[in-house]
Amino acid sequence: MIAVARIIRERRHTVARTLRETFGVGLSDLGDGLSWGEAKLLIEEASGDPSTALGAELADWAYPASMPDLLTLIAQIGNEKAARKVMPWVMQSPKRQDETRATTDEIAAAEAELDSGIVFAE
């Protein structure tokens, strides 16, 4: 029960999405229609499956994808180099994007530098 509560606390939105999308149950079902033991098993199962939101997040993938999804994507793109660029383990995950966003000071400095280089002719 403690392990389930911990992962729910750490990744509440992702766990809720995964339970609902993958298994058709929600966090509100815990304790009634879904035992804590079963929830633990479902979360463990989803954790190792990158086609679930939880599994993709834990694998640091940009989006959830199954093997058939990836094979279909590769076939649709048709170009091996281009296909590699859109694989979920290559693209930046939303979590990593948040970590690499520019600060307010960095944005202000960049805008000032752009403004100083722009000259309007009259």
General description of the model:
- The structure is a single chain.
- The protein is mainly alpha-helical.
- It has one domain (2-94).
- It is built from 8 helices and no strands.
- The protein has helices spanning 2-10, 12-23, 36-47, 53-58, 67-77, 80-85, 94-99, 104-117.
- The termini are far apart.
Concise summary:
The protein has 122 residues and is mainly α. Helix content is 62%, strand content 0%.
Compute the average pLDDT: 86
Q: Which secondary-structure class do the elements indicate? A: mainly alpha
**Quick one: biggest sheet?**
none
Low-confidence stretches: none
Residue fraction in strands: under 5%
* Count of alpha and pi helical runs: 8
For the termini, the CA-CA separation is 71 Å
Q: What best-fitting shape do the alpha-carbon axes yield? A: flat
H/E series:
HHHHHHHH
Topology, number of strands? 0
| Count of the separate structural domains | 1
| Rg computed from alpha carbons, rounded to a whole number of angstroms | 21 Å
Give the fraction of residues assigned to helices: 55-70%
Q: What would the keywords be for this entry?
A:
62% helix; flat; 122 residues; 8 helices
Record the SSE blueprint.
Elements: H1 2-10, H2 12-23, H3 36-47, H4 53-58, H5 67-77, H6 80-85, H7 94-99, H8 104-117
